[in-house]
Each structure stands twice: as C-alpha cells, then as structure tokens.
C-alpha cells in the first residue's frame, strides 16, 4: 500500500493531545489522515491544530458535512483504509460495543466497512471497571483491534493500566494493521525476520524506596536495553519494554511499561507473558529496604545512623526460567566488575538462562555509549570487540533472529 488513508477519531480524554503527535507520525510515515473530533474532544484539542497538522478539513458534527445529498458520513467512513480511534474513551467504546450512533464519530464507526483499531486511554478504575472490560471483550469479539493501554503514573495521580500507549507504538500497530513492512531498518538487517514474534525486554535501574524521598538505585541509564528494544522492533518483533526509571524516549514501535521497583518489574514481566524471547537487560536491585518508612526518616541527634535492614528482591531471570510459560529463548545480562566471563558462566547455569550477555562495568559502561560484551551460551563463549551500544543491539537482535530462522 503506497499511501495509507487513516480516518482518525479523537475521543474526549486527557490524552487527546497525543493525537497531534500521531497525526505527525502517520504523515511522516507516508500516510494521509482525516480527523474527526467528538464534542468532548473539543475541550482537549483544537480542530485548528489537527487541520494544520493533517492539512485536511477536520470534521466534528454530523450536520456540518457538506455532501449529505451524497451521504457524506458514509463516504467518510469508507474512503479510509483503516479507522483509528485515539484516544478511545470509555464512553466511545461503550457506544461502539452497543452499536449506538448518536454523533458523527459513532455513526462513522457503525457505518464503516474498514478495519478498526482502538487505542483506549482512561483512569485506571474506568479501565478496570467490569463494564469497560465487557465492552472491550465485545469489541474484540466483533473483530475490532483494541490495544492494551500502558501501565504507569496517570494524569489523575493514580497508578495502573489506562495510559495511552506512546504514539510511535500506535503508529507501529497501524502499520501492522495495514500489513506494511516496518520502516527504519538498519543497513544490512533483514526486514521482518522477527515478524510475528513477541519479545519482552527489561531496561534501566530499579528504585527501591527507603522512605518517601529516598531510594536505593544504581547507575544504569537504560541505553543498552532501549537500543535492543529498538533493534528488535526494527526486525518486525512485537516488543514490550518494561522500563525502570530512565530519561529516554520510547523507541519507535515499542510498547513501554514503566515501573519503579524490582517487585513492580517482576509483576509487569509476568503480566507481559507469553513471549517468544525475553531479554532481561535491566539492572534490578538485589536488595530493597525491608520496610519502606511512611514518613521521611529524620536524624535523631544521637549521631548514630538508622539501621536499615534489607530484604532480597525477587530474581526475575531465575523466576522466568522456572515459569511454566518460559520464553523459548531466555537471555539475561550480567554486569560484572571482575572475572566477567567466569561469573557469567556460573550465572547462566545457576539461573538456567539460555544466554548470559556479560559486560564489564568497571569502566564507564553504565551511562556511556559503548559496550564490550561476551555472550555465554550453553555451548560456549563469544567475545565481541568494543562497539557502540546501538551496534551491540543490532548484532544481538540479528543473532536472536537467527535462532528463529
Ligand atoms: C478533565 C477530563 C478528563 C477526562 N479524561 C478522560 C479520559 O482520559 N478517558 C475517558 O474515557 N474519559 C475521560 N473523561 C470523560 C469524558 O470526557 C466523557 O466520558 C465524555 O462524555 C466522553 O465523550 P466522547 O466519548 O464522545 O469523546 C474526562 C473528562 C474530563 C472532564
């Protein structure tokens, strides 16, 4: 398909502003977009911004379509290759599931004969409400593609599933729905080698709370894990990236779930299964404070520091190896400061991972842009020369794809 035509229906949610970014990405990817706003969406984003970004007229009401003698609302719903609802409110999904058509957006959704992709975004309670879950199940049974929302801190101050996935991820899903090959392959990489595979990647540090203002952390920047997620997505994999706190943009086409602590990361990894491959790059804290204080711990004037008992965190890699839904290829990372290969060989056997990618972090690897790694497999050790993290990621992604060739 040369230039896909997208009909973008924007619901009245706080994430409506992200529709502007999605319009930009669709256009950058060579598509055209026609935007329709619900009445509520007007309160969050202006038709003017969307018209400027899409370079097309924006529609808002059933009654302002000019060509109703030619059934403009039917025409609008049919001339697209794909209908995308982003953000989809709880209300819009309820109406879609019930077949209600009481405004332009819902009338188009009922009248269309094209595939429909829905990106929900709402407060966690609204998302988890049995009514919404029923509506999502109904829509999926009707053949609508409903994306899972991201999990993390929300605009309303709560935490959980309900956040709109990042626009680059939605654009990746649009490309998939249109059956287009992914763009932006690195030179020399075979496109689509991991198409149809789900790869789970963890990245970044974890933060283990001590009290409301302090935490235990490490120097991991997330750069290597993010580069690996990007390289795997470029090979056509569906990538879920479970990320500790980092300040990096989400790679194109990657579904990112933000977490803070090791226990949150373990839960997010479990929730993301099944996966064909897991690449556990995150530098998960081995220990957490046994009890995180509810209030800031104060000096008591005695000069004696407080005692901080630690508890061991769950071992995410070993847990995945024992999981009945163990990924076919399980890869762990080992950050070592001495006897790098020896420790990695022992770690692979102890955790029952398929590969351990060991890196020497005694220099400035953590936070730096280069890495030198050793891959320990069940049968031997490969040592790679020092290279940029992006190149490590591309070579590793190709090595993973070869396992599935
Ligand atoms: C400030 C504010 C933010 C809102 N954010 C959301 C949201 O993110 N998701 C959602 O489903 N509803 C949200 N709502 C409620 C919807 O706007 C409301 O259900 C509206 O009827 C949706 O209309 P629509 O589905 O026609 O766009 C929000 C309301 C307000 C006032």
| CATH top level assignment of the largest domain | Alpha Beta
Are there runs of 5+ residues with pLDDT below 50, and where? 181-190
The biggest sheet, with number of strands, parallel, antiparallel or mixed sense and barrel status, is: 8 strands, mixed
How many individual helices?
13
Rg, Cα atoms, Å: 24 Å
Distance between the termini: 27 Å
Overall 3D shape: globular
Number of strands: 21
Mean pLDDT: 90
Spell out which ligands are present: flavin mononucleotide
By CATH, the topology of the largest domain is Rossmann fold
Helix content percent band:
25-40%
CATH architecture of the largest domain: 3-Layer(aba) Sandwich
Strand content: 15-25%
Strand arrangement within the widest β-sheet reads 12-11-8-13-16-17-19-20
Q: Which structural class do the helices and strands define? A: alpha/beta
* Whole-number count of domains: 2
CATH superfamily name of the largest domain? CoaB-like
């Amino acid at each position: 398909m040369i230039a896909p035509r997208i009909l973008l229906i924007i619901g009245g949610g706080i994430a409506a502003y992200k529709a502007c970014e999605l319009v930009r990405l669709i256009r950058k990817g060579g598509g055209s977009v026609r935007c329709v706003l619900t009445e509520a969406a007007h309160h969050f984003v202006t038709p003017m911004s969307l018209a400027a970004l899409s370079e097309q007229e924006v529609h808002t009401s059933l009654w302002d379509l000019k060509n109703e003698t030619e059934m403009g609302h039917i025409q609008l719903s049919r001339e697209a290759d794909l209908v995308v609802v982003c953000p989809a409110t709880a209300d819009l999904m309820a109406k879609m599931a019930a077949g209600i058509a009481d405004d332009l957006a819902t009338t188009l959704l009922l009248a269309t004969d094209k595939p429909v992709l829905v990106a929900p975004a709402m407060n966690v309670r609204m998302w988890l409400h049995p009514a919404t879950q029923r509506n999502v199940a109904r829509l999926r049974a009707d053949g609508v593609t409903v994306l899972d929302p991201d999990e993390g801190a929300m605009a309303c101050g709560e935490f959980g599933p309900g956040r709109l996935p990042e626009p680059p991820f939605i654009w990746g899903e649009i490309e998939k729905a249109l059956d287009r090959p992914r763009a932006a392959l690195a030179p020399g990489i075979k496109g689509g080698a991991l198409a149809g595979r789900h790869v789970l990647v963890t990245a970044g540090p974890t933060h283990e709370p001590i009290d409301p203002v302090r935490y235990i952390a490490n120097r991991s920047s997330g750069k290597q894990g993010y580069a690996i997620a990007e390289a795997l997505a470029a090979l056509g994999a569906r990538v879920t990236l479970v990320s500790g706190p980092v300040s990096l943009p989400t790679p194109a086409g990657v579904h990112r779930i933000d977490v803070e602590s090791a226990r949150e990361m373990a839960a997010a990894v479990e929730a993301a299964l099944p996966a064909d491959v897991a690449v556990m790059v995150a530098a998960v804290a081995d220990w957490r404070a046994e009890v995180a204080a509810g209030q800031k711990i104060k000096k008591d004037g005695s000069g004696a520091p407080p005692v901080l008992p630690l508890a061991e965190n769950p071992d995410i890699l070993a847990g995945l190896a024992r999981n009945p839904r163990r990924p076919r290829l399980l890869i762990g990372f080992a950050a070592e400061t001495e006897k790098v290969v020896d420790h990695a060989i022992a770690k692979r056997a102890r955790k029952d991972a398929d590969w351990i990618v060991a890196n020497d972090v005694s220099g400035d690897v953590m936070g730096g842009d280069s890495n030198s790694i050793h891959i320990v497999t069940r049968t031997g050790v490969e040592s790679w020369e020092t290279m940029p993290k992006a190149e490590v990621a591309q070579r590793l992604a190709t090595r993973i794809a070869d396992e599935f060739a």
